[in-house]
Amino acid sequence: MKRTRNAFTLVELLVVIAIIGILVGLLLPAVQAAREAARRMQCQNNTKQLGLAMHNYESTYKRFPGGVGRYGCCWGTWQVSILPYIEQTAMYNLYQNSGGADPGPRYSATVNRPVVSSRLPTLTCPSDTPNAPIGGTTPITSHNYAVNYGNTSFFQTELNGIRFMGAPFHAYTGSTSDDGPPNAGAVAGFPRIYGVQQRLGSISDGTSNTLMASEVLQGRQNDLRGFTWWGGASGFVTYLAPNSTSPDVITGGICVSMLSPRMPCTTNTTVTAPRMMATRSTHAGGGVNTVFCDGHVTFISDNIDYIVWNSMGTSQGGEAFSHD
């Protein structure tokens, strides 16, 4: 009896392979979308945890932490202050001279490197690419959340006809360029007080209408955006729209302009474009996760009306708006 052998022909194999390829092509975007949805959810949860940490700090000290220290850029930002409230008390206890002045150690000092070289999961958005712009044997990390410095610039003064109307965090208020005293000898005669801590009760616009914090993107290579251990990258302003096409203005640091993700920047600080940074993310659909001063978290579209967005940055502007 003659036996016949059943087998696929070459044509049939090619058809099956083609079908599998089509199915993979159809499924891959769905898988990627599901993964991004999970990353965005994690980012929203991180934003919520940051809001809770700020409120726990405020409950303890009856005011929010300063955006920067008394003398500016380099002795620890709000990020150091909230470490005990994101389950990092041991790191907080290691950090020396938080908010202090020269000649004490700065954030980059050897004694503080074990802290600032750590990556904090609560402050890292999984949708972004981690970066550590300051190198060496213990590179200093960047992160993905910054606090609200108001509706103008980091200098918190009138800008191009827009009045500064208060903010829940203060930075380089009244400055025109500097980071703070350049050395120990300049501390005694330094005229300004940076990073003044604000009371929750000072937010007369209402805590549900005033932004507390939002997302930023970590720069690539030696770009200092997202470098929130440093005062120059510790905040954002609503003078720039979410994911703005206008450049971030970095003072005293390096930036690397990018088209993807969209991260325009300049180091040329001018009177009409002083030190400022926008809130940015890579989330699909365009927009950023934000937490307001009452603790509620909202995803805000890049298409939000600019006047509404600018008003969200003020704590004492008296504006009436709805962002729902």
TrEMBL record:
Coiled coil: none
Residue spans crossing the bilayer: none
SUPFAM superfamilies: Pili subunits (SSF54523)
Domain DUF1559: start-end pairs: 32-305
Superkingdom field: Bacteria
Protein's recorded name: DUF1559 domain-containing protein
Organism, scientific name: Aureliella helgolandensis
